[in-house]
Design goal:
The protein is of the alpha/beta class. It has 26 helices and 19 strands. It has a nine-stranded mixed sheet. It has a four-stranded antiparallel sheet with strand order 10-19-16-17. The longest helix has 24 residues. The protein is globular.
Length: 654
């Protein structure tokens, strides 16, 4: 990333200063900068940019009458070797500095503007450094009861970034009547990356000017890794913030192994970095203290996050999933969630209800989140799912979901072929009514775009199945029909029985189970399972299109009606209805809805739903957003829309 034109002439000198400073920096600090930037050369370049931005920020803040914080860390060392500071200040004085909107934007957003070139895209990914907007900050502070007289009094933000949480928490506490002297000791921020620490200190200095407070009394920001042990750290009432969302494989191997050993309670899986932050937060809290984090949706439902969910569940107070909300992090293809949990003895769970919220489907963007909260009895909510948090459950759903949660399981699923080739997929895959003549081993190829509930379009893709050119070939037997195919990407589970021996891509899953294929498809396409999957089994919604990703591990949790396993005549009736529905779709028969109604009657009987429960099911699925979300896809339906709100592909976070 390049600096603005006023700084460009000074970049060579800044690079020389960064190169001179580099050998003087501690090894650990150099390692942090190298990892964030991608090597020594890029790290030095990032340091040069940060030095220039820090000097510009200092000049502009002083010009606006704001006391700038002292420059610390690697930038301070580079500054000593930079011999052009006077010329830089003179050049900046000739520039129109009115573009710095002091008084118009929140202090953390100003800090982001001032240090926009300090972090490369790689650095943001390695640090998880996407800063938090005001609506999320205020929502989380409200949930944590920060600023209430009986609420938490001390606070630690372990990944401070540009200071979004720390600045707002300081402001709200001052507005609540607490003294600056008290708060200077009660609030603490920190970050592993020195550039982020300086950006946060600048934000606090601007906040001090806004609030009319001596900047010397601003909360302290310490440059250190929050995941390193600190025996001298005092317990706090609240650990707050937006910890970095960095996938486990992106954490350097040595560091990842150290975290697994240090936080064994998180587990040995591919845990997100935020999971380790949650474990560290619980250790830092006093008994009864609160953790209040913005996390990725994966913390709520990913298999790798099972360990951290087990840590948080005993004291979980509130969770809000924002999958349908307007973008919270522009430029980041992520779906956030808010969670608040107390530190409690795992053997003594809270007795209070769990509060659950979701952004209302179809709501418009606003400065506030507008979440719709519901309370669910903890003793009934906890047992519903052993593999993920049941975020979309509401009180009227409990009776139905408890019944469905107790029935047998027995599905397995395996992904289709991943056409990662040594020669390029475009050379082995072609579209058209027939395969190209150049193909040596032509095979019909289906993918997830082809399959809907009960049916599929005609084959229009072909694969040249050259096993030596494909990285993970599968046997012909794997694709032999009849086979049940389920698209990985859809709002609701849907299945089709492929009677052919066509191959399928990894956007489809081949599903197996203890039933005849058409009976398996009937269970998957049935209303009870789609209702159950919406509430308990959604593994994630794609940010670009609001379509659920249905993983193979999720399918293993699909419930099977007990009579289908115990009564051959009942199972045969189920298969006959599934076969009739598939024929109706293939022939364009308008009787499909009647057949599906009969199927749903049979399935509700098999799942053991009473007439009252069946009536409740019909009532619940007629409501939005459920009516739109769990409607099975038909041929000709638009793939990237739902009836309440529409997004162009990728537009949600553009």
């Amino acid at each position: 990333m390049s600096p603005d034109p006023a700084l460009e002439p000074f970049l060579p000198a800044a690079r020389d200063a960064a190169a001179a400073a580099w050998p003087q920096l501690p090894c650990g600090l150099r390692a942090v900068l190298e990892d964030a930037s991608g090597g020594v050369t890029k790290a030095r370049a990032a340091l040069a940019l940060h030095l220039l931005e820090a000097l510009r920020a200092e000049t502009w803040l002083r010009g606006a009458g704001v006391a700038a914080p002292p420059l610390e860390g690697p930038a301070a060392v580079a500054r000593a070797a930079f011999g052009h500071e006077a010329e830089l200040r003179a050049a900046l004085a000739r520039e129109d500095s009115e573009e710095l909107p002091i008084g118009e934007l929140p202090a953390p957003e100003l800090a982001e503007l001032l240090f926009g070139a300090s972090f490369s895209v790689r650095a943001q990914k390695r640090r998880g450094g996407v800063y938090t907007r005001g609506a999320l900050v205020d929502a989380l502070l409200d949930l944590a009861e920060w600023g209430d007289p009986d609420g938490p009094q001390t606070l630690w933000e372990p990944a401070v970034g540009a200071g979004a949480f720390l600045c707002r928490a300081w402001e709200r506490a001052l507005q609540a009547g607490r003294s600056p002297e008290d708060l200077s000791l009660a609030l603490l921020g920190g970050d592993l990356h020195p550039f982020a620490c300086h950006a946060a200190r600048v934000a606090l200095a601007i906040s001090a000017a806004y609030l009319g407070v001596d900047p010397c009394l601003a909360p302290q920001v310490v440059c250190r890794d929050a995941l390193d042990p600190d025996p001298s750290a005092a317990p706090v009432d609240l650990v707050l913030g937006n910890p970095p969302w960095v996938r486990g494989e992106r954490i350097p191997k040595a560091q990842r192994l150290a975290y697994r050993e240090r936080f064994a309670e998180v587990g040995q899986g591919n845990s997100d970095l935020a999971s380790y932050f949650a474990a560290a937060a619980l250790r830092r809290l006093r008994p009864g203290g609160r953790l209040a984090f913005v996390v990725s949706q994966g913390v709520l439902d990913a298999r790798a996050s099972a360990g951290v969910r087990a840590l948080l569940t005993p004291g979980l107070e509130a969770v809000a999933e924002l999958e349908w909300a307007p973008p919270a992090f522009p430029g980041a293809n992520v779906i956030p969630a808010l969670l608040v949990a107390q530190r409690v003895d795992p053997k003594a769970r809270l007795e209070t209800p769990v509060r659950l919220a979701a952004f209302p489907l179809g709501a418009k963007a606003s400065s506030e989140l507008g979440l719709e909260w519901a309370e669910v009895p903890r003793r009934r909510w906890g047992p519903l799912s052993q593999t993920r948090w049941a975020i979309h459950v509401r009180q009227p759903d409990l009776d139905l979901l408890e019944t469905l949660a107790t029935v047998p399981r027995g599905f397995t699923a395996t992904y289709g072929l991943s056409v990662r080739t040594r020669v390029g997929a475009q050379e082995l895959v072609a579209e058209g009514p027939r395969p190209p003549s150049r193909f040596q081993e032509p095979r019909a190829l289906r993918d997830g775009r082809d399959v809907v509930a009960w049916g599929a379009v005609e084959v229009r893709r072909w694969l040249d199945y050259q096993r030596k050119a494909i990285s993970d070939p599968k046997s012909d037997a794997f694709f032999r029909g009849p086979k049940v195919l389920v698209p990985r990407i859809a709002l609701t589970p849907q299945a089709w029985v492929d009677e052919s021996d066509a191959f399928c891509r990894n956007t489809l899953m081949v599903v197996q189970g203890p039933l005849e294929p058409h009976a398996l498809a009937a269970v998957i396409n049935g209303l009870p399972l789609r209702y159950y999957a919406y509430h308990l089994l959604r593994a994630g919604v794609l940010a670009s299109s609001h379509r659920c990703t249905i993983y193979s591990g999720v399918i293993s949790d699909f419930p099977i009606p007990a009579p289908a396993l115990e009564d051959p005549a009942w199972a045969s009736s189920l298969a006959d209805l599934g076969r009739a529905c598939a024929a109706a779709v293939a022939e364009g028969d308008p009787q499909l809805s009647r057949l599906e109604a009969s199927l749903n009657d049979l399935l509700c009987e098999g799942y053991g739903l009473s007439p009252i429960q069946r009536a409740l099911l019909d009532e619940r699925v007629a409501r939005e957003p459920l009516a739109s979300v769990i409607r099975p896809l038909r041929h000709g339906d638009r793939r990237r829309t739902f009836s309440v709100q529409e997004f162009r592909p990728g537009a949600r976070y553009s």
